[in-house]
Amino acid sequence: MWRWKSMMAATLIICSDMLAQEYDTFAIIAEFLGNASAEEIDPEEVERLERYIEHPLKINIAGQSRLEECGLLTQYQTASLMDYLTRHGDILSLTELAAVDGFGTDFVRRLSFFISLESGRLPGNGGMSSKRFHQELEVKATGRCNDELIGQYALKYRIGIGDSLQASFSLSKSSAAGRPDAFPGNVFWYFRRYGAKVAVGNFNARFGQGLALWSGMSISGLSKPSSYLKRSSNLSPSYSYTGNYSFKGLAAEAIFGNFKMTYITTLSGSEGERGLLPAVNLTLLCTHGQVGLTHYADFRLPDGVFYIPDMKTSFDLAMTLRGVDLFAETAYDWNSDSVASLAGVVFPAGENLRVASALRYYPSAFQPTYSAAIRALTKCTNEYGCSTSAEFSSGQWIDINGSEGFGSNSRRLQGGFCADGAYFPVSKSDDGRKSVQLKSLAEIKVMITGAIALKFRLAERFRTWDLPFRTDARMDLFYYSSVLDMNFRANLVKCNKTSFLTYAEGTVKSKSLKLSLRSGLFFADNWDDRIYAYERDLPGSFNVPAFYGRGYWISLNGNWRFAKWGRAYINASLTEYPFMEKKKPGKAELKLMLRFQI
After folding, report:
1. Helix (H) or strand (E) segment spanning residue 467
2. Using an 8 Å Cβ cutoff, are 520 and 504 in contact?
3. How many CA atoms within 13 Å lie on the side-chain side of 185?
4. Mean pLDDT of 161-181
5. H/E run at residue 345
6. How far apart are CA 185 and CA 86, in angstroms?
7. Predicted local confidence at residue 121, as pLDDT
8. At what angle do helices 43-54 and 25-33 cross, to 10 degrees?
9. Which residues, 6 or more positions from 431, have their beta carbon under 8 angstroms from its beta carbon?
10. Using one digit for the tens of pLDDT, what is the confidence trace for 111-154?
11. Labelling 114: which of 150, 208, 434, 438 has CA 20 to 30 A away?
C-alpha cells in the first residue's frame, strides 16, 4: 500500500513542472448557473453542461427541438432566436447574437462556452441540417486505495447522425462485484419537419420550475440572480454512466401549432416494488414565454395490491417582458391534499445591476418525490421562504491576460449578495421550538491588473436549532497568463470550533497537453466544521470532498490529445492525516480515461 502511495507522490512531484488547465471548466459552469462557487453545482448539471463545452451546440443548424432540450435557453430566447434566423439568416458573430432580443452581452458572454456559430447557409437563405455521422467512445478505469485496493471501470459509447438520431450506451462497475452493475442507454429519433422526437431508454424529463416533475437531483441553492429561474428542457437525452438520476422507459414529444405535448412512461420504485409512472405535459408556446400543465401518477402493484403512492398536477409559467423574467409554478399533491407554490422575478435594475427575488411555499405534507425546485435546505417540503439576490459590476474594462475574443475582458469590480429566510412549520428542534433559518452571502472580485484578481466571499448562516451560527470566510487570489494560471485559496469556517483550509494550484496549457497540480492543508476537528472543496476530475465525474480532520492532500489532473481522434485523461490524488492524535488511514486514488472520436 505505502509503495503504491509513494509511487503516486513521486509521479506528482515529477509532473510539478508541467502544471496545466486550459480554463476552469467548473468556474464557467458555476457562473452560467448562478452558483457562487463550484462546490454548489448540481452534479447532473455539470455532466450536461460539460458535454456542451466539449461538443458545443450549433445554434445555426440545430432545430427548435434541440434548442429547447439543451436547457441553455429559456423558451422566450428560443423563440426569439428561431425568429431571427428565419428573418436574417445565420448568426455569424457573438456580437450579433448579443443583439438578438432576450440575449444581451452579459448572457452571451456566459453562453459562449457552450455554443458554436457553425453555419450551414449564407445570410438570408434557407437553412440546412447537418447529416454528418459521428461517434465517440470513452473508457474509464479507477483505482482507490484506503486499507485495500478497489478497482472500478466504466465505458460509454455515443453515435449520432446529424439532427436525425442520437444514441448512447454505457456500462459501469462501482461495487465489489466483478461484473458491471449499471447499463444505461438511450436512442433519440428527431423529426425536424414536424418538431417531434421519440425516445427509448434513459432520458431526462424536466418541466416548469421543478416543483412537480424534474428528473435528477438538484442542489438548487440560491446565490446569484441566474440561479433563480430554471430553464426546463422537457424531454432530453441522459448521458450518465450510471443512469441513477434519469428516467427509464418510453417517451415522445411533438409540436402542434403553438402547443407542445410530451408524454412519458417510465419505470418507478425499486427492485422489490416496481411500478409504472406515466406523465404528460402540455405547454402553450407564447410570444413572450410559455405556460405549462403537467400531470403524473405512480402506479404500484406489490403482492397484487394496487395503489398510487404519488400523484401530482402542476401549472407553471415563465415569461419575459421587456427584459424582465417572471416565473411561477403551483403543484397539487393528490395523496396529501396539499398545494405547493413558488414565484419569482429576475430583472435589470440598472445598466450593470441585476436583481432577483422569489417566494416559496412548501407545506410539510407535500411529497418532494420528483421535485427539484429552488429551496434553502434539502427538499421541496416543510419550508416557507423568501429570497433576494443581486449582482453588479463597475469600473473600467480590463483585458484578461491569456484570453482572446468575445468575453476576454472584465469590469474592474464585480460582486453580489444574497439573503434568504426560511420558516419550517414542522420543528427541527428536539424541544419543538419554532425553526427558522437565515442565510446571507456577499462576494466581491477585483481585477487588480489583467494578470491578477482578488476575490472575497463571506457567508453567514443562523438557525434556531443545533449549532445556531456558521460563518464561512474565503479568499481567492488568481493569476492569469497565456502560459501559466495560478490560484491560491484560504478558507476559514467557524461553527462548533474553527476550521481552516488552504491550497495552491497552478495551471499551464499547450496545444495538446493540459495538466493541473494542487496541494493543500486542512484542519477541521469537528464534522460540523468541515470544509468542501471542489476537486478537478475526469469528464463525466464530479468530486466535491468534505475535508475533515487534520492533514494535507496533493492532486494531479490532466489530459493529452495524442491524435485528432483521441485524448487521454488522468486524475490522481493522495490524502494523508499526519497531524491527528488518533491515527486515521490515508487514501489514494488513480483514475484513467481514453476518449476516441470520429
Report:
1. none
2. yes
3. 14
4. 80
5. strand 338-350
6. 35
7. 59
8. 120
9. none
10. 988 998 887 655 444 444 456 788 888 888 877 666 566 677 88
11. 208
